[in-house]
Amino acid sequence: MARTTKSAIEAKGNREAALQGLQRDSPLPLYEQIADRMRASLHASGAGSQFPTEESQMASFAVSRSTIRKAVQRLVDEGILVRRQGKGTFVARPMPQIVHSIDRMAPFAETFSQVGEDIRTEITDFAWNQDPDLPDALNEWERPVLSYLRLYVSRGVPHAITRMTVPLPLGRKISRADVESSPMYDILQKKLKVKLARAEFLVSCRQPSAAISSALNVSQSSFLLVLDRITRDEKGRPVEMTTHFLRPDVYQLSVVLSNLERAKP
Questions:
Q1: How many independent structural domains does the chain possess?
Q2: What CATH number does residue 37 fall under?
Q3: In this structure, are 105 and 230 located in the same domain?
Q4: Do the beta carbons of residue 51 and residue 88 sit within 8 Å?
Q5: pLDDT for residue 44
Q6: Is 261 part of any domain?
Q7: Is residue 259 part of a domain?
């Protein structure tokens, strides 16, 4: 009897823990909220381990079968879970693990050669933008500006999108063929003969737009690691801005500091 009571108490505690933070009056659907919690809990699961049954998830979250199925389908679409007919649902193979260094000026593509990842890239947009969303530091740029998106995929998983923006005088000299074949830094330095001097970085976490979340197969309620970079030439003029949208389950940022003097008391 005592054992039964203990099991019931543990089950109730697990259910309350699962329900914690669910907002039934939120504009974000319940299945999206549950998918976020499932995704977080899977970090401790090994690849190939079996995912809990629909019945156990229904009991944990106190929701309908259709809601659980939508949440699980979200994780299947993201490549986190995989269904095996007649056997069940399992944790998929590990995601790529990529460390990106931001303490040097180099094309983003160099990161992948250092970690040995086989990366496929695709230009998903290339257009002139009359009303871009740019920081105050770029207010003096003449409009329109040239902007394009590059998607990065490895092991069948889309894990990064970069949005590159360049001012009108430079953009006029850049073609879609250029950006499909070369990183922006190479185009600026080799084709346009721009001497790059320094880059400024701003790191943040943001919820993705509908378009970005769809391209990266992540929930719009999740947070991405976002890296904004403004690069300047030898005269201090901004010549490009790149925003990196990175999946945090794939990327880490690295900085190496040296020659620092100890602060005096």
A1: 2
A2: 1.10.10.10
A3: yes
A4: yes
A5: 64
A6: no
A7: no
24 and 127 part of one domain: no
Q: Which amino acid is at 191?
A: K
Identify the weakest region by mean pLDDT among 80-84, 179-183, 261-265: 261-265
For residue 68, what is the DSSP state? H
| Whether residue 209 sits in one domain with residue 85 | no
How far, in Å, CA of 199 to CA of 207, rounded? 25
Write the CB contacts of 208 (distance below 8 Å, at least 6 apart in sequence): 216, 218, 220, 222, 224, 245
**Structural domain of 248:** 98-254
Contact yes or no for 248/97 (Cβ under 8 A): no
pLDDT at 87: 84
For residues 119 and 39, membership in a common domain is answered with no
Burial 144-176 (b: 16+ CB within 10 A, else e): ebbbbbbbbbbbebbbbbbbbbbbeebbeebee
* pLDDT tens-digit map of 49-97: 899 999 999 998 999 999 999 999 988 887 788 888 888 898 887 778 8
- Which range in 9-13, 111-115, 251-255 is most confidently predicted, on average pLDDT? 251-255
Query: What are the φ and ψ backbone dihedral angles of 160, each rounded to 5 degrees?
Result: -155, 145
Contact 180, 231 (CB under 8 A): no
**Count of CB atoms situated within 10 Å of the CB of 74:** 22
β-pair partners for 199: 231
Taking alpha carbons only, the member of 145, 162, 142, 137 closest to residue 216 is 162
Is residue 196 within 8 Å of 233, Cβ to Cβ?
Answer: yes
CA distance 152 to 137: 28
pLDDT digits (tens, 9 = 90+) for 156-180: 789 999 999 999 999 999 999 999 9
